Inverse folding.
């Protein structure tokens, strides 16, 4: 009998040991995609929220990242199958004056891949101040610029400039009453220094005249200069900024310092009049263009429901976009761009993720207002998929504004 009892005790002991050696397996997690946040894209002390959605906008997964670097977006629910293509939404937020600006970018038709997203806001290393003497009579606004920073103002009071490079330069441009446009360039602009700039002797800028494809009642023009071929928007010089709408014009004149830069980004918007809701955009990098290629496409209407937008469009374009806007009672500003291929019959508005709702309890899809829609035709790309490949290339990601394109946008009235 004692042998029988001892045998039972031994069996129970062995059974317990086996149970400890074979724990329950953890739920399987599948990687949906990788995203590498580079060049300070995630601002300290905030985080970036990423959520993945089905093609119809229903949620698959969401996650948040607080540090830059390579991350995996995982599917933590094994009961959810990952479709061949899905939607990706990147939510980035940062301080904006006395508010919080939340930028949301959604892309339809994404395949499993590795993305890189590059920050375009370099860290400042300090400030420099500059005051002016022998100021000539002038009209309009004065442009002050150094790499990554500019101010466009009527004031000639001493300026405080943000500095991003150990060795920087300073540029001033104004329209003098006697001599017309003039500029002043100063080398060796460094953080922590104070400068006095004599404006008695100023140089004549180079200028390029670009004809419009139609008479414009209102137009804007920006000309950026780059010291190399990187076209890094965070380190660009703004050489000219034109805001005009007093009388209709058939052309725009852009000024820039002579003999210093050969690589530019030209961004122009034209509008027939304030009573016309169509805005035409032109964005080129490299040489300053001699003409503006008007997009061969147009939007004839837009219909928005709770979770989708249908654009009535025609012509040749690769990408369609909807821009939604919402400001909360807490002065949180939400700007939401949703991008879809030209072949998409609908632009889906994805369900907001639980993480986004927990971070911003005031947000509700129903509160967003459709501000404008846009069709984009790239000069050197042939499809929406190529746009994604170039923008999120894991070795050299680019911002949309670093690509060459023409577009038409319709304001919702």
């Amino acid at each position: 009998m004692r042998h029988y009892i001892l045998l039972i005790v031994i069996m129970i002991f062995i059974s317990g040991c086996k149970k400890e050696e074979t724990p329950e397996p953890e739920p399987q997690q599948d990687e949906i995609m990788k995203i590498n946040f580079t060049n300070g894209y995630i601002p300290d002390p905030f985080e970036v929220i990423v959520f993945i959605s089905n093609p119809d906008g229903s949620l698959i997964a969401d996650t948040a990242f607080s540090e830059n670097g390579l991350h995996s977006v995982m599917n933590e629910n094994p009961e959810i199958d990952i479709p061949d293509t899905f939607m990706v939404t990147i939510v980035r937020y940062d301080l904006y004056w006395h508010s919080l600006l939340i930028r949301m970018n959604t892309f339809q038709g994404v395949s499993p891949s590795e993305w890189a997203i590059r920050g375009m806001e370099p860290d400042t290393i300090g400030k420099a101040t500059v005051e002016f003497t022998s100021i000539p009579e002038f009209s309009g606004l004065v442009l002050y610029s150094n790499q990554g920073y500019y101010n466009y103002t009527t004031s000639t009071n001493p300026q405080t400039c943000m500095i991003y490079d150990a060795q920087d330069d300073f540029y001033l441009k104004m329209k003098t009453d006697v001599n017309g446009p003039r500029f002043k360039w100063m080398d060796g602009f460094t953080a922590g220094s104070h400068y006095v700039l004599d404006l008695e002797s100023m140089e004549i800028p180079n200028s390029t005249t670009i004809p419009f494809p139609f008479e414009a009642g209102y137009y804007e023009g920006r000309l950026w200069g780059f010291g190399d071929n990187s076209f890094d928007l965070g380190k660009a010089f703004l050489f000219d900024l034109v805001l005009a709408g007093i009388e209709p014009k058939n052309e725009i004149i852009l000024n820039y310092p002579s003999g210093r830069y050969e690589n530019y980004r030209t961004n122009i918007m034209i509008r027939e009049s304030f009573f016309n809701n169509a805005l035409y955009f032109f964005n080129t990098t490299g040489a300053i263009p001699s003409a503006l290629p008007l997009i061969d496409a147009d939007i004839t209407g837009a219909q928005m429901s709770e979770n989708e937008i249908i654009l009535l469009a025609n012509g040749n374009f690769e990408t369609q976009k909807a821009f939604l806007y919402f400001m909360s009672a807490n002065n949180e500003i939400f700007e939401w761009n949703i991008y879809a291929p030209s072949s998409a019959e609908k632009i889906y508005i994805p369900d907001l993720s639980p993480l986004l709702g927990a971070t911003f309890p005031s947000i509700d899809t129903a509160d967003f207002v459709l501000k404008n829609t846009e069709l984009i035709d790239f000069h050197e790309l042939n499809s929406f998929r190529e746009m994604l490949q170039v923008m999120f290339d894991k070795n050299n990601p680019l911002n949309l504004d670093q690509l060459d394109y023409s577009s038409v946008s319709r304001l919702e009235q």
